[in-house]
Write a structure and sequence with these properties.
It is built from four helices and 18 strands. The chain has 342 residues and is α+β, with helices and mostly antiparallel strands. The chain has a domain of 126 residues: Protein Transport Mog1p, Chain A (3-Layer(aba) Sandwich), CATH 3.40.1000. It has a 14-stranded antiparallel β-sheet with strand order 7-8-9-10-6-5-4-12-13-14-18-17-16-15, sandwiched between helices. The longest helix is centred in the first third of the chain and has 24 residues. Keywords: Membrane, Transmembrane, Transmembrane helix.
């Protein structure tokens, strides 16, 4: 027979042993950051999805005006351009029906951009097909594992790898003489054989693309351990708003994230930890010292969310993050007219 009083005593003991609520919130926030970091890495490697929409709406010329197709908003964005002009180089000439472009990511190393990744999907968070152009040592840890199969793509030797991890994925990598490495990745709900056929068909359709993308944001200062580290710029959308993420991965897994867009900061408003008002240049916002996070509202309703993981002993991380944003050049807002196009 179960003693109800004993049950109540046991639950009371568990409650007494539970960690403080602040620690739980911090742990959950850290888990969210880790998950967000993994999504950014996987997007660039051609194995991720566009982040789920948050339902946040803001006003201004950057908002969507009409749908361009199933799941894709039309984004006014900005004029595009910036201090670095990057050629797109290649694109698939064939994609399944309803697929449109959903994200573009660039690796920036000094004054050059050695890698660009592009994602196509039938809608947000759905079965992406990606094309990665070029390679950089900073991506070595993201290289897909698995047993490679020798394939041929338009006369060039290549490899096909299928990985059954969190989600089944197929990768086709090849390189024609004198050309950059190309990698097509497919994460659909198809079986292994159908996914393999789809990946090969997309890969064999890849053709030159004369288009270009501009890198507008630029750092004026970064912490010493991140000062020369290659960084990543991602253009995409959340719900009906454009967003661009700037990500720097330092030593020991340390990360600096600056998210910019019409709804970049609003989706983080539900924090329950202490905040402080802050003013950087002519912009007002608030910060969370406990989480090393900072929020700003720029003109025309553009928002900024910035976060820096704790660094070396003795570093004042919140002060370092504030200086990063103070000296950050946001550049022109990105051209987003390509969203939803094939």
């Amino acid at each position: 027979m179960i003693d109800s009083e004993a049950i109540r005593t046991a639950f009371a003991a568990l409650a007494d042993q539970a960690p403080p609520p602040d620690r739980i919130r911090a742990a959950l926030a850290a888990r969210v950051r880790q998950h967000h970091r993994r999504r950014l890495v996987l997007r660039l490697a051609g194995a991720g999805v566009v982040a789920a929409s948050t339902g946040v709406a803001t006003a201004g010329v950057w908002r969507a005006t009409r749908p361009s197709g199933p799941g894709f908003p039309v984004l006014d964005g900005g004029p595009g351009g910036g201090w670095l002009d990057v050629p797109l180089q290649y694109r698939p000439a064939w994609l399944p029906q309803r697929y449109g472009e959903s994200a573009r990511t660039v690796v920036v190393d000094g004054e050059r951009a050695p890698v660009i990744s592009r994602d196509w999907q039938p809608g947000p968070a759905e079965q992406p097909i990606s094309l990665l152009v070029g390679w950089h040592p900073s991506l070595d840890a993201d290289r897909p594992g698995g047993t490679p199969e020798n394939v041929e793509v338009n006369g060039a030797p290549g490899e096909l790898v299928q990985v059954d991890a969190d989600r089944f994925a197929t990768y086709v990598t090849w390189r024609a003489p004198g050309q950059p490495q190309l990698m097509v990745s497919v994460l659909t709900d198809d079986g292994a054989d159908a996914q393999r056929d789809l990946a090969m068909r997309v890969a064999r359709s890849v053709r030159p693309d004369p288009g270009r993308i501009g890198v507008g944001p630029r750092f004026g200062w970064r912490p010493a351990d991140m000062a020369t580290t290659p960084w990543r710029l991602r253009h995409g959308f959340q719900d009906t708003d454009w967003v661009q993420d700037v990500v720097v991965n330092g030593t020991g897994g340390r990360q600096l994230l600056i998210s910019i867009g019409a709804g970049a900061a609003t989706k983080f408003e539900n924090t329950t930890v202490a905040t402080e008002p802050i003013r950087i240049r002519e912009w007002k916002g608030w910060r969370i010292p406990e989480m090393n996070q900072l929020f700003l509202t720029l003109p025309a309703g553009v928002e900024v969310f910035a976060q820096l993981d704790s660094g070396p002993a003795g570093e004042q991380t919140m002060s370092a993050l504030t200086r990063v944003v103070e000296e950050f050049d946001f550049g022109p807002w990105p051209d987003m007219s390509w969203v939803g196009n094939r």
